[in-house]
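Notes, p. 3: input format for complexes.
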Amino acid sequence: MSSSVSVAIENGVAVVTIDNPPVNALSFHVRRPLYEALATLRDDPSARAIVIACAGRTFVAGADITEFGKPVEQPELRAIVALLETIAKPTVAAIHGTALGGGLELALGCHFRVADQGARLGLPEVKLGLLPGGGGTVRLPRLVGAEKALGMIVSGAPILAGEAKAAGLADAVVDGDLLAEAIRFASETADQGGVFIAVRDRNDRLAETDLAAFDAQATDLARKSRGLDAPLACAEAVHNAITLPFDEALAAERALFVKLVSGDQSRAQRHLFFAEREAAKVPGKDLQRRTIERVGIIGAGTMGGGIAMAFANGGFPVTLLETSAEALQRGMAMIEKNYAVSVSRGSLTEEAREQRLGLFKGSTDYADLADCDLIIEAVFEDMAVKKEVFGKLDAVARPGAILATNTSYLDVNEIATSTARPRDVLGTHFFSPANVMKLLEIVRAEKTAPDALATVADLARRIGKVAVVVGVCHGFVGNRMLSARGAENEFLLLEGATPGQVDKAFTDFGWPMGPCQMGDLAGLDIGWRNRKARGLTAVIADTLCEEGRFGQKTGRGWYRYESGSREPATDPEVEKLIRTKAGELGIAQREIGADEIIERTLYPLINEGAKILQEGIAARASDIDVVWVNGYGFPIGKGGPMFWAGLEGAVRIVERLEYWRQRTGRGIFEPAPVLRRFAETGSWEAVGGAL
Ligand code: 3H9
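Output follows (691 residues plus (S)-3-Hydroxyhexanoyl-CoA):
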């Protein structure tokens, strides 16, 4: 007995309860008493059956992730599962909340699984750059079949109890008192008697596998793995489960797990797991939150509509405001179309679509925002326009309502001055499409009240966003660093790289697309307008825009697009334009390698991140990683720019920045003091701002 594991025997059924808040992870201090309790009960004649249950909000949600990378303390999870499989009396896992990773593997060591109807069961290790290392890849296929198991393990997505029952993973689903039902199930099963077969010895489902179909599915998944090792290892392990004897497949799974857990990709993904949770913590845990029941959105364009959908998807009634009935109708039509697409793809039920659309109330009158608790403006990105909107809001919003601007660049402090209540003003920078993208930068202005900030941070979680609090500066964390990443783009092209070469260097690095492809997707006119407003020029990009080449929407940008296609094709006209401009500027062209492209784009990106830390625009280096992975597609296997800087070597980054500084004379390469200190100490230091 320990405080983490207790045993009670009732009417011959032993209930082993794990109690390790918050998520009952299988930490060492759980594993040892659990092992001891099971070893004792195995030989205890007063126990006819054993139920494993958990206290608190969930069944075991996995191995203790904080223990990875440290020496393994015995007994390991595998030993516990192996012990379970030597028990002749019926063993039952009583699952509520989530049975994830090592938690599900523990349950797979039992003869039976009884699940609460709201429970979710899955093997999400792949999201941590791992594969299930406690026998999950060899036991799950024995219950649900190899193809279903492959899908679950490679996606990491859990399934609901009902689906688990249909698939053969759960033996019973309970609507009511889970523990009482699990005990009854165990007792009746013991009464029936007979031989209870361990999952390891159930081979019928595996024998049905169509290996060719399985391999085709695995190949398809491998294609989508984008340079990540874990999905491939998952597929290999399930393949082993089909083709090798149980113990050999188990040993092979272990070898793959050991390799992955010590690799950079898993370290990076574990870093991101904790970074996202850290970023969600804003000071004032005990502050009274403001009540948010209705949300107002001003502007039903692409951003406003997407933001409105994000809130409706989270169950919030939304008042959507536009300047005219026509604009409102256009906006609502777009929202309806987006939901219809989701229904046609099968990701939304017809009922859910209707329920969500029922949450919308359209209006063209600011007075209708009076009953909103949070109002977000998503109007044209122009200071005068934003200030006018906030002036109007000040007149109609109820006292205590939070007033937010969805600006991507503008000074939120200045916007706040157009109200008499700057404490209620902050920025919510959503990313397009706002109903899909997970990142939300919450901009804390000088006078933003802590409870307003904490309320919005909580709210972000409720609508499924990953939120990061940032300070006020041009472009906040993400877009400011994006400008630094793009600063050398034109020079690289003028000096001889092609758009295709630049983009390939990025996709080879693991980005979903390179900067030229991204520009074409977003619309080159956006940057052009921005540059003009700031008195800046970009010799090639400006010329493209002057020629009406705005990217995908005009069929031509950095690339050519056949009508209706999103596939970029090299455009000799663009390459000629670049050569001509280089000639006019007297720049000699040369071969530019991928390494140079990465150095001249990603090192300044990191350098800008260091400046952001120094200025207190972000509170932690890991917050910057969360922004870049969730908002800009930085490869998760590299952990975000600030984590990757450690992998790449900060000393090298400083040296190369200095080299490029000397060679080009450009300030973008001047290493920031915080970066220099990182190179010396190996840890990022922040001055502590944003929060
Ligand atoms: C594994 O099992 C490997 C095995 O196959 C092989 C082993 C040999 N460990 O997310 P929340 C902390 S790999 C340690 O905010 P929610 C978390 O950091 C594991 N800590 O709650 C946070 O701490 P804090 C496979 C963990 O209700 C607190 O718990 N399993 C772990 O929104 C609350 O977390 C997974 O990958 C852990 N395993 O969501 C599941 N899990 O408060 C990972 C959580 O100090 N976990 N913490 O910031 C989850 O997906 C979610 O936490 C869960 C709850 C859905 C369970």
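The longest strand covers residues 5-10.
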